[in-house]
Amino acid sequence: MFNNSVFKEHIDTVEWFKAAGIRAIKTMAETALALIPAAVTLSQVDWKTIASTAIVSGIVSLLWSIKGIPEVKGEE
Asked: Which of 43, 57, 62, 70 is 20 to 30 Å from 3 by CA-CA measure?
């Protein structure tokens, strides 16, 4: 269940945090880009909602990465 998880001894924690952080940033950007077209014009974009939703998606991405991420190769 937990492949390449941060909780495994053979996983480099620094490498895991870098990979998980990059994933979270990409997820946040994708979420923000998906929400912007919901407004008719750029002046109608609710930036607070977009920012808060993007932040939540980044947190969820980090939590989901605890299960394991393929970018981090473990020495088994």
From this structure: 57
Is the separation of the CB atoms in 69 and 19 below 8 Å? yes
Kindly state the tokens that stand for 34.
Answer: 């998906």
Report the distance separating Cα 76 and Cα 74, nearest Å.
Answer: 6
| pLDDT, tens digit, 9 for 90 and up, residues 27-49 | 999 999 998 887 777 778 888 99
Measure the CA–CA gap between 72 and 70, rounded to whole angstroms: 5
Any idea where the domains of the chain sit in the sequence?
Answer: 1-76
How many of the other CB atoms lie within 10 Å of CB of 24?
21
Burial degree of 14 (CB within 10 A; 0-12, 13-18, 19+): exposed
What's the pLDDT score for residue 76?
A: 46
Gap between the Cα atoms of 31 and 53, Å rounded: 7
